[in-house]
Records
---
Amino acid sequence: MKYNKFEEFDWHDCPLYSIRFDDNLELNIDYILKWAIQSNSTYKYLIAPANLIFYDVLNMEIFIKSYFLNGFEIDRIVNEGNCWVIELQEGYLKFNSSGFNQVLIKDPIWKENQYLSEEERIVIK
């Protein structure tokens, strides 16, 4: 099983679309690969849909509070040994895991906002 290097990733402002539980924890997100400032001081974002998978998850704790439900957004992910905390703008997920892997499920595209549309996220087989 291949694990990615935690230090290579920054999940700040990545939208979270779905959470799947079994022995692993799988998050379906829009991963922001790059932030680029434009000449008019606005940003463009290089984004791809991705699956972020944490393996052998134990001791799951979830706290989420939102006054309206239009999605969740990752603030950051903290790792100390096998203890992980996914800090959301709306709460957190805390658990133990043996490691993680992230896979982009489509090629990234440049956007003027920080999320993909449903059409942009669909994988055609």
---
Amino acid sequence: MPKSETILLTGITGTAGSRLGAQMLRSGHKILALMRDPTTDSARRRIDRVLAISDADTFADSVEILRGDVCQPELGIDSDDCRLHEIGRIIHCAACVEFIETTD
């Protein structure tokens, strides 16, 4: 990866995404984290928690929150968001890990 690339990362608070995100931050990249939290504040708290666990909390300023949802058309992102033009790479680590059987 080129140095100082902006990366759109899904699943940053998950097991794989948090470790990958921490490594990318240590390598000098900026992360645009796709988060579906109801508020930016709740998303920031979750990101700060996983960065602390990954011993990467000193890089918190290099993570911006992009509100959206991988289950929505166009990721639920406002296509006019100027930050989208900064993205050099997209890494998808989001997953559904609920194994509850349904009777549909």
